[in-house]
Amino acid sequence: MGARIILGVSGSIAAFKAARLASDLVQSGHAVQVVLTPGGARFISPLTFEALSGRPVPLEVWDESGGQGPMGHIEMSRWADILAVAPASAGAVARLALGLPADMLGAVALSACCPLLIAPAMETGMWEHPATQEHVQTLRLRGATIVGPKIGRLASGASGAGRMAEPDEIRHEIERVLAGTGDLDGVRVLVTAGPTFEPIDPVRYIGNRSSGKMGYAVAEEAQQRGAEVTLISGPTALSPPAGMAVVPVETHDQMQGAVLQHGVGQDVIVMAAAVADFTPVEPASEKLRRSANLTLSLAPTSDIAAQATRAAPEAFHVGFALETGDLIGRAREKLQHKGQDLVVANAVSETHNPFGSDTNRVSLVTRDGIRELEESSKREVARQLWDEILRLRPELRLQHRSHQ
Ligand code: CTP
After folding, report:
1. Domains of the chain from N-terminus onward
2. Ligand 1 close to Cβ of residue 273 (< 6 A)
3. Whose CA is nearest to atom 8 of ligand 1?
4. What residue's CA is closest to ligand 1, atom 12?
5. pLDDT 10s digits, 320-335
6. What is the pTM of this model?
7. 15-27 helix and 46-53 helix, angle to the nearest 10 degrees
8. How far is 137 from 272, CA to CA, in rounded Å?
9. Is 346 tagged catalytic?
10. C-alpha 211 to ligand 1 mean position (Å)
């Protein structure tokens, strides 16, 4: 059955794509009420949306037409099953996060109780600005679904993150939110993320450059799609995501203990952590003093991922492989000897270093082939990873029924 959708269109050149989105939604049987912000109306005419949706498009909060005109903001917010803002300009994202009823869209958003979905579209600098990132995080924590943005050509001619997701994808996400169930509903997921720190003495350690962003993105995406997530995190600068069980660890041994403790009974285990391969044999109990050359004796650590596949043989196991050489060959070897189902292969080269970056370029290596993904945000990579996991293990979609 068709849903009642408010489509907010704000001031970005991507407003032209909102016409396609409105048309697709109407053709899929939904009732679409478009709300244009003053900025949006500079890019595209209300008439376009009135023709596509068959409904008057309000521009002002104060409607003077004596009830014959468009719905008021309260009426509209009660009417809607979902509020989708596409494109969401930097200004619209900020107003939505701050709850400013500066225009009709802000007023509707503030009075609506329905789910909110936003598809940001702006120049890279604006998207990456900490202010915008904080606003997006605020919206996400309030339960909003954020679709995109993509990396690609922008209105300025430059290329970077900030391009609005395609109408097809936005419609798909709107329908997914409307269905009320994520496709990972009830699925139990364990994700490891970040580095491990191996102590040399009480103040020094051997670590690595992992920021934890990829693992956190995998965990957050799973959670948003309905999974029950346990995140085992090495030391990172990221704030622990709300609504999931977060187990903080520091060393390889602690991570191993946590994975073995929480791994049994999981449906999917994703080992995104950059676990130390070597650890000091005997960490000094006192701070080491500067003296002559210091030789550290390092012992290899045990492979946590391989132990996890043995401890939870029923689960779908995902590993990460960061390689400087033969990426796919090494990823295949890891798939085999760790007994995993999928390896996310990450090339590190002079031109591509995923450490700390917000974007990533990976290949998904499975027993039946390789899928190369385009460079995109770590969240987008996470989304495609979960799509692939569901393609390979479709019964996960039905998981929630069997747990009930
Ligand atoms: N990993 C693990 N336990 C370790 C080391 C790595 O579980 N002691 C996991 C990581 O979480 C990741 C995968 O193994 O999912 C690949 O890590 P990587 O360091 O690239 O591979 P290794 O297995 O250590 O192999 P090599 O160092 O020979 O490349």
Report:
1. 4-178 (3.40.50.1950), 188-396 (3.40.50.10300)
2. yes
3. 303
4. 320
5. 998 888 888 889 999 9
6. 0.66
7. 10
8. 22
9. no
10. 16
